[in-house]
Specification:
7-stranded mixed sheet, 6-stranded mixed sheet, 18 strands, about 35% helix, FAD/NAD(P)-binding domain, alpha/beta, 2 domains
C-alpha cells in the first residue's frame, strides 16, 4: 500500500518510520526545501519518550538535549521569587525526561528515515478521491500529479490537507499569542535554568542552550494586540507590547531585532469530530492540536503516529477500520489534553 504523507515535522517522519517497518510504502512531501531545525525547547517524556526508545532514537536525542535543572521565576528587577527543580522531576521519572528543542527531535526522526523517500520543496496542493474511495490522486505544488492509496495530512496547525478535506478552519483561538526566537551572544546567561518573568497579561522566558545561544519564548494575551495591528512583521507589535515591561525586556527586544528565526502565531487548538474522510486522514497538530502552550505536541505526535501505523497494519489494508480504531483509541485521550491546556493561558 502506497501512502503519501504531507509534512516532514514530527508526526510525518514518525509515521513513515513505523509504516515502513510494517511493510507499507510511505512517501513524505514537504513544502520546505530542507528539514527544519531549531524551534522552541520542549519537555520530552512519557509515552512519546517510550516510543522514541522503541525506535532506537534515545542515544541521539540525549546527545542533543540541554541541561535545564530548574525553572526560575523572577521579579521585575530579576530577583528570584520562585523555583521549580526539573532535576527532581527528572529523578522521579527515572531519568526519562529530556529538555530538547523540537527541531532536534524532528531532525533525529528525519535522519532515521533511511531509504524512505522525502520530497522537499513539494507539497500537496489538492487531491481527488477515486469513485470507490480506494485511492486518491494528488496534485502537487510543482504542477505534477501522482496517485496513492492513502493520504495523511501531517502538515500542522494550519493544515492545508485539513482545509481541503473538511472545507472549514476549526481553529479555536485560546486568547493568547506566542513568539519565539534565538539569540547569539546574549548578554545574560543562566546555563542550567529556564528563567521566566511575568507582568500584566504577558510573559517572557529564556533558556541558554548548550551551544551558547539563548532561546526566548514570549506569550501574551490577545487583548494586548491593538485593533488593526498587522502581524505580517510581528516585531513592531512585540515592541509595543513589551517595551518598558521590566526585567530584560529592552535587551531581549534588541536580540529579537537581530534574530533570523522569529516565529509568531496565535495560540490555537484544533477540535474536530472526525480525523478522516475516505482514504484521507489527519495526524498530529493537523488533527488535534492541544496548543503550543501545552508543551506536549511532540510527544502526542509520536503517540498518534505509533497508533495509526499499528492500526493500519492490524486492519490489513482496510483503511476505514484502521482510521476508525485510530480515532476511538485516541480521541478521548487527546480531548483531555486539550481541556487541560486551556488552563495554560491563565496569565
Amino acid at each position: 500500500m502506497r501512502i503519501a504523507i504531507n509534512g516532514c515535522g514530527i508526526a510525518g517522519p514518525a509515521l513513515a518510520w513505523w509504516l515502513k517497518r510494517y511493510g507499507f510504502e510511505p512517501t513524505i512531501f514537504e513544502k520546505a526545501d530542507a528539514p527544519r531545525s531549531g524551534g522552541y525547547l520542549i519537555d520530552f517524556w512519557g509515552e512519546g519518550y517510550a516510543i522514541a526508545e522503541k525506535m532506537g532514537l534515545l542515544s541521539v536525542l540525549k546527545a542533543r538535549a540541554h541541561n535545564v535543572e530548574e525553572m526560575r521565576i523572577v521579579s521585575r528587577e530579576g530577583a528570584p521569587i520562585a523555583r521549580l527543580s526539573l532535576t527532581k522531576i527528572r529523578e522521579q521519572l527515572g531519568g526519562r525526561f529530556l529538555s530538547i528543542s523540537r527541531g532536534d527531535v524532528a531532525i533525529a526522526l528525519y535522519e532515521a528515515l533511511d531509504s524512505i523517500p522525502v520530497r522537499f520543496g513539494k507539497s500537496v496542493l489538492g487531491f481527488r478521491k477515486s469513485v470507490n474511495e480506494q485511492g486518491v490522486e494528488l496534485n502537487f505544488s510543482d504542477g505534477t500529479s501522482e496517485s496513492f492509496d492513502l493520504l495523511i495530512g501531517a502538515d500542522g496547525l494550519h493544515s492545508h490537507v485539513r482545509q481541503i478535506l473538511f472545507k472549514e478552519t476549526p481553529e479555536k483561538e485560546m486568547g493568547a499569542c506566542v513568539a519565539a526566537f534565538t539569540a547569539h551572544d546574549y548578554r545574560y546567561k543562566d546555563d542550567s535554568a529556564y528563567v521566566l518573568y511575568q507582568s500584566d497579561k504577558k510573559q517572557m522566558a529564556r533558556t541558554t542552550l548548550a551551544d551558547g545561544r539563548t532561546m526566548f519564548l514570549l506569550t501574551f494575551r490577545s487583548e494586548l494586540v491593538p485593533e488593526g495591528a498587522s502581524i505580517d512583521d510581528p516585531r513592531p507589535l512585540l515592541r509595543t507590547i513589551y517595551e518598558g515591561s521590566g526585567w530584560e525586556s529592552e535587551t531581549a527586544l534588541q536580540a529579537m531585532d537581530d534574530s533570523d528565526d522569529l516565529y509568531f502565531d496565535r495560540v490555537s487548538q484544533i477540535r474536530l469530530d472526525h480525523w478522516s474522510d475516505g482514504p484521507v486522514a489527519l495526524i498530529g497538530d493537523a488533527a488535534a492540536c492541544a496548543s503550543l502552550l501545552a508543551g506536549e505536541g511532540t510527544g502526542l505526535a509520536m503517540i498518534e503516529s505509533y497508533v495509526l501505523a499499528g492500526e493500519l497494519y492490524r486492519a490489513d489494508g482496510d483503511y476505514s477500520k484502521a482510521f476508525r480504531n485510530y480515532e476511538e483509541r485516541l480521541s478521548k485521550f487527546l480531548r483531555k489534553k486539550q481541556n487541560a491546556a486551556r488552563s495554560m493561558v491563565a496569565f
